[in-house]
């Protein structure tokens, strides 16, 4: 799970263009708190950002806050934040980004990952004029099954 989680961190290493100075400053405070070993303060900073930031920033913010929860072993909270991130990515039509996070969600919450895969496939079907890649859908959904 750590290798997949590291990919989330590297994908969110820089703020999106268009962030105003206030959001960048608060984002850097959240990151600095995390880097200095104060994850609770980082979570508080991310929570404030999430509460006040425009919707277009939420996928990144939930993803980063999820990374903090993940690193302190709060996997349920991390999974919830990753779920919010995927939903926002789907809403933003960033289908590739959403599909990248689904395997991470699947390791924490397979049922939520399955539901998100359905939403993503529905969005892809609408986006691609009524066709979807069912081979990929089957491969992704098969990866969520746990061995008995």
Automatic annotation (TrEMBL):
It comes from Acidithiobacillus thiooxidans. This is Uncharacterized protein.
